[in-house]
Amino acid sequence: MLDNAIIFTGIPPFSAQPLTDCFREFMAKEASYKEQFLQKHYGYAFDGYSYLGQTDSSNQAYDDLVYSFVFSNFFPASRYPPSFQAFLKEEWPQMLVKIREIELSIITSLNLPGLLAFYRNHIGHMFSNNYYPPVDRFQDPSRGNTRLSEHPDVSLFTIFPFGIDGDFQYQNPSGRWQSLKVTNQVLAFPGYLLELWSGRTIKALNHRVAMPQDRQVERFSFASFSLPFPKRSFRLPAEAGTTTSERYFNRYLSLFEE
Description:
By secondary structure, the chain is of the alpha+beta class. The protein has one domain: Sandwich (Jelly Rolls), CATH 2.60.120. Helices cover 24% and strands 24% of the residues. It contains seven helices and 14 strands. The radius of gyration is 18 Å and the shape is globular.
């Protein structure tokens, strides 16, 4: 079912517990240890660790109340912390099979010329693990009184394989913010890459994470993003000439320049 660009698949969610345990283990490490895995040590897309207050993170604003770790199939699994190794070897490959099935089904329904070949030839997957501490630890919320400031995703599609907890908000076609109820199924929505591919006929979903009513509650969220592999050249149908994966990422990041 399609509702304001959010696709409710009806597929039962995967269990979030194994990955939550992996992420908790990583987050419990000393800051000096975690900083060995900062984004700058990977060098493509958003892979690596980002922390609250970081001014050079490419996937969150410095005042977003979140810590994140991103892994992908752009790098060997051995590049990531030991805490994630069991998940990367066991659950991740199985989850990727299901995620690709969902995305291929959406692509078939969209019937956009060339999109299927582009997906099969150029697209890999990134997975973002996000931890939101209890907000009563902080004097000031992030911009817009949110835990995570508003943004479209960099992806072709964003998939939430574990469903979504409360406080997720999205901007509907009339520009009003709507809250999405707790969703116990796999869901998906379009990102900026699909917006460009479709000539902006399909808009990336602008979304954010609102402040919770209970300021002592922590929050975990996990999402998969379909993105071009490194060093690929491709053409966006509605635009002249070719671009590369790296130029595409720079174009996306320019959306947030002030």
